[in-house]
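debug: dumping io for the single-chain case to check the tokenizer round-trip. Nothing else runs in this session.
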Amino acid sequence: MKIHRYLELEIDEKLNNDLRDLLVEAFELLYPNRRYFKQLPHLRLLIFGDEDQVIGHVGLDYRMMNLNGEPIQVLGVIDLCVREEMRGNGIGEALLNKVINIGKTKQVDFLLLFADRPDLYLRSGFSHVDNACTWLQIDDERQIIRGIGEASFDELMIRPVGNKTWTDGHLDLMGYLY
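debug: decoded output
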């Protein structure tokens, strides 16, 4: 299974349409009719099937965050999904393993994601954390900033890949919520 890396700037119209269709299908009514939810990721990892159709996707967002006053380097895992007819073939696991490897070999302290269905992530060494978070709120439809959000999330999961230790307390995402 070959995983392809795409910088967001490299995505052409055909790939844009394939990504949009996959993401809308995978996340059903929750996803707007475009290739991103709140913001474009920096990098995507893709797996293609027959006829060069995207069958597996994960977006990656690399940024600084602040954990209890300490800057941390975070690789955000965004919208991991696999075409419904291809699920159960190890595609999601292969994508996640590639993300973990990137995190371990680059300047990344933690992988971070929000998961409604955490099983795959728990099996891959992620854990739930209960931090109070602040983030930049974005209006999905109008694509404008609404303000600063503050809350804790049951879906928040992390995986250490560097030398730092995760702590309870306050997490400032210093940007949008994936």
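debug: round-trip ok. The chain has three helices and ten strands.
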